[in-house]
Structure formats: C-alpha cells, structure tokens
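Give me the fold.
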Amino acid sequence: MPGLVRLGWRGLKKKLIDRPDIKFALMLARTLGRTLGELESTCTAEEFGLWMALYESDPWGPVREDLAAGMICSTMANIKRREETPAFSPLDFAPFLKPAEPAQEATIEEFFNLVGAINEHS
C-alpha cells in the first residue's frame, strides 16, 4: 500500500476504478475508523492481504446491505407475483450490484495475435 496517501485529486475517480486495492483500502480505513494514512502506517502488506481475502469470502458494508435489502424485496415481490411472472432475484432490487461476468480464457492463437498487435504498435 505504499504511496496511497500521495495520490492527489487529479484523476482520482479513474484511479479508484483502475485500482481496486485503493478502493478497498479506503473502505477498510472507513470501516476501522482510521484515515488512509493511519491505515498505511499501521497495516502490513500481509495484514492488508488478509483483510482483502476476508472481504472477498465474506463482504461487509454497503454491498452486503444492498444484497440483504434485495433479498427482502425479492421475497415480498415473489409472494405477490402471478404464476406466469418470472421469479424476482435479489439483484433485481439492488441496481448497484452487477452479477460478475464469467471470465473468458484466451486461446493460444488469440494470445499471440494480441502480442503481435502490441509489437506492431511499439
């Protein structure tokens, strides 16, 4: 996490999108009631990695709260829906949560085509 405090304001939104570790560090600092500087000076890389692993297996905060609210809403909506209406999902009521798109593995041919395209532009 070194240097997280010295990001500056310019391009901050892009950094948050491109760097999930920074976004997570900010959320962790907020959760622990610390500033980002305090977290950076007291949290080792190993501990930070453990916090990230815990969050990936058992998320907390707004994401979990949105999902919980979505579960309640979908249950209530499914009680009142008609039989011909498809069942509602918790994600139907949590607009900021997007289901993860399955990762696609590149074939060897696609990989070499990509490397070739990169080399042509260098």
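The chain has six helices and no strands.
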